[in-house]
Amino acid sequence: MSAFDELMAFERESQALARVAGRLSWDQETVMPRGATGQRAEEAGAMEAVLHARRTDPRVGDWLANAKATDEDGAAQLRLIRRSYERAIKVPADLATALARLTSKSQGIWAEAREAEDVSAFLPTLKDVVALKREEASALANGRDLYDALIDDFEPEMTASELGAMFEDMRSGLVALREAALAQPAAPELTGSFDEAVQVALSRELAQSFGYDLSRGRIDKAVHPFSSGSGEDVRITMRTAEDDPFNCIYSTIHEVGHACYEQGIDPTYHLTPIGQGVSMGVHESQSRIYENQLGRSRAFCGYLYGRMRDVFGDFGVSDEDTFYRTVNNVNRGYIRTEADEVQYNLHIMLRFDLERALMSGDLQVSDLEAAWNDRFLSDFGYDVDRPSNGILQDVHWSVGLFGYFPTYSLGNVYAGCLYEALQRAVPDLETHLSKGDLSAPTSWLRTHVQRHGGLNEPRDIIALACGFEPSAEPLMRYLKDKFEVLGASAASGR
Question: Which reaction does it catalyse (predicted)?
Answer without folding.
Answer: Release of a C-terminal amino acid with broad specificity, except for -Pro
